[in-house]
Amino acid sequence: MMKFINRIYRCSQVDRANFLNEYGLSAPHLSLLLAIKRHPHISQDELAKFTFVNKSTITRQIRVLEEHGYIHKEIGSDRRVKTIVLSEKGQALHPLLVDYLQDVNDHITQDLSDQEYELFIDLIAKMTRRSNERIQRLDWKNLICE
């Protein structure tokens, strides 16, 4: 089973890299942009926890997104904490990302019947919950979970 999941993941990484290259981005930036859109004014620490990526990697990826103008940082009510929000350019990119992901999803599931698709989603959701439970027990701060 993991062989197939890993293969799908690897193929999706190559596809994402190809798509995102046009915008000066790489595959890891996609999940960060989507997380920032879902959670405006998220801190870098919260983003690291939410995406299971270590803080130093988040810092590097955020720097790239900021240099390309897709995000900016704001100082919150607690002046010690900067939060991250999508810029106008990032907001404009978001629908393109969503459309791209929908296109990928449609392509890889086109041979499934509606019933098979629903069953697959139910099963993969259960597996995701169990996987999340397992990783929550770890001291993942010292791990690279990318």
Shape: globular
The Cα radius of gyration reads 17 Å
Name the strands of the widest sheet in spatial order.
1-3-2
Alpha-beta content class: mainly alpha
Number of structural domains: 1
Mean pLDDT: 90
Name of the CATH architecture: Orthogonal Bundle
Number of strands: 3
> At the fourth CATH level, what is the homologous superfamily?
Winged helix-like DNA-binding domain superfamily/Winged helix DNA-binding domain
First CA to last CA: what distance?
A: 20 Å
What portion of residues is helical?
55-70%
Strand content: 5-15%
Count every helix, treating DSSP H or I runs of 4 or more residues as helices. 6
H/E element sequence: HHEHHEEHH
CATH class term: Mainly Alpha
CATH topology: Arc Repressor Mutant, subunit A
Low-confidence segments, given as residue ranges, are 142-146
Fill in the keyword field for this structure:
disordered C terminus, three-stranded antiparallel beta sheet, Arc Repressor Mutant, subunit A, mainly alpha, globular, single chain, 146 residues
Describe this structure in words.
The protein has one domain: Arc Repressor Mutant, subunit A, CATH 1.10.10.10. It is mainly α. Residues 142-146 have low confidence and may be disordered. β2 (71-75) and β3 form a beta hairpin. The chain contains six helices and three strands; from the N terminus they run ααβααββαα. A three-stranded antiparallel β-sheet has the order 1-3-2. The protein is globular.
